[in-house]
Write a structure and sequence with these properties.
This protein is of the alpha/beta class. It has seven helices and 28 strands. Strand 19 and strand 20 form a beta hairpin.
Length: 464
């Protein structure tokens, strides 16, 4: 029954028959754009293809419990015929959709900003709305030039490389200079006649060495591989002055005692709302889903801290089975549909060897330097990892995203669906990647990489 309800609910969301308020995004992509990408008949055939087996299993279960036949032969053959038609229909439509994502293309732009008339620059972010593309990132770097140089890298997919480049060029993103202030839009959008083709934007802003600048607190939403990798935390962003030297990013006004080691991490755990902390027995594995915001960091003892609305915290269940800590919400249909329900979870443990994250969960994990770590990330989960590992392995599926920072010896991952592995800031000696569907992987390799792709999947790497 749960499988049948899941299929019907998913189909309803795409057809806009009914959806929960605020359910606008799937990972970084607006559901409205994804719905435009998929023809209604493709969704209809897919729903029928999945729903009929689920319906048959449900009816068989009821028949076994009632100990009598409840489905006539004519109805059974009718359902089978409809199921075959859905297979044929999907077989005619789906390959065309996959073809539209077969190739990957990149469009680059460079913009110069003159700050010579000012002694201090300020970087901030302007919120641009939830109905636009969220897949926008910014990195800060230093250089020897006198100007501020912004490199924009637009990426997209298409039926050919030239078509993918055209789709990338259809992406619109605003950066505005007003005196000494540079304001970056939080989201990007598409031209009116453009189609959604997994567009992404990554930016690098090059700042002159020794030129002081400040940053707004909200810049953390798009800032990547800048603060943590320099040994600082995002809590130090507001109220401090920064410069770049040849050695890297330096906080001029930060207290020296607040700088972390390069393996440190900022969990930025919320302090407002209702908070409960519980000491637990030993565990080194985690499992969770839903829309939890999870922060994982090293600790001398094993504990879990919950933060949020009191009723949400009280409806959050956690238990240890063997060496695994499982976190979930209370099983209640009406409570599950509460769009304001969010619980922040802080996990502290001496070591974590296994994590399974699913649903729409968001994870920030860092500060560990262990031998092995296995990650299983699925659904629309977003996982951010910083650390050093001898062996890092796992699986990505659905629309999940894994972003890695740090260094290690070996990386092994299987990617499927529309998952994304962003490991350009994680230096590894060896990597073995298997990618299928529309999955993407980006890595930095020191020695050797082996990879195999199928469908519209792609693997990009740079070798140092």
């Amino acid at each position: 029954i749960s499988l049948l309800m899941s299929v019907l609910f998913s189909g309803g969301v795409f057809f806009s028959l009914r959806g929960f308020p605020g359910m606008q995004m799937l990972d970084e992509y607006p559901i409205a754009l994804i719905r435009e990408m998929l023809p209604p008949y493709a969704i209809l055939f897919s729903v029928i293809f999945l729903a009929i087996p689920a319906l048959v299993m449900t009816l068989l279960g009821v028949a076994i419990m009632m100990k009598r036949k409840i489905v006539s032969a004519s109805l059974g053959w009718g359902l089978f015929a409809i199921w075959i038609v859905s297979i044929v229909g999907a077989g005619m439509i789906v390959p065309g959709i996959v073809t539209e994502f077969r190739s990957e293309g990149t469009h680059r732009e460079e913009v110069n900003y003159n700050m010579e008339d000012y002694s201090l620059a300020h970087l901030t972010m302007k919120y641009a709305g939830d109905d636009k593309l969220q897949n926008v990132t910014l990195r800060l770097r230093g250089h020897e030039q006198d100007n501020f140089l912004l490199e924009k890298r637009f990426e997209a997919r298409g039926r050919s490389r030239n078509n993918a480049i055209q789709n990338a060029q259809a992406m619109i993103h605003g950066v505005v200079q007003q005196d000494s202030i540079l304001s970056f839009n939080s989201h990007a959008s598409l031209e009116d006649d453009a189609q959604f083709r997994m567009q992404e934007l990554s930016m690098i802003l090059y700042i002159p060495y020794e030129y002081p600048f400040t940053m707004s607190d909200n810049l953390r939403d798009i800032l990547r591989s800048t603060i943590y990798t320099s040994g600082y935390t995002v809590e130090q962003i507001p109220g401090n002055t920064w410069i770049f030297t040849e050695a890297g990013l330096k906080c001029v006004t930060c207290a020296t005692s607040t700088k972390t080691s390069s393996s440190g991490t900022d969990v930025n755990f919320p302090q407002s709302g209702h908070t409960e902390k519980h000491n637990l027995d030993n565990f080194d594995a985690l499992r969770y889903g839903s829309n939890f915001k999870v922060f994982i960091k090293p600790g001398s003892e094993h504990s879990i801290t919950l933060n949020g609305r009191q009723k949400d915290v009280e409806k959050t269940n956690f238990k240890i089975n063997g060496n695994e800590l499982k976190i979930s919400y209370e099983q209640n249909w009406f409570y599950w549909g509460d769009k304001d329900k969010t619980v922040n979870v802080l996990i502290e443990s001496p070591n974590i060897n296994y994590v399974k994250a699913s649903g729409a969960s968001v994870t920030h994990m860092g500060g560990f330097s262990d031998k092995n770590l296995e990650l299983i990330v699925s659904g629309a989960a977003d996982y951010n990892l910083e650390g050093s590992y001898e062996r890092l392995e796992g699986q990505l599926s659905g629309a999940s995203t894994l972003t890695m920072t740090g260094k290690g010896n070996t990386v092994e991952f299987n990617l499927g669906g529309a998952s994304s592995l962003n490991a350009e800031s994680y230096e590894t000696n060896y990597a073995e990647i298997k990618a299928g569907g529309a999955a993407t992987a980006k890595l930095t390799i020191l020695e050797n990489i082996e990879y195999k792709t199928s469908g519209a999947a792609s693997v990009d790497y740079q070798k140092k």
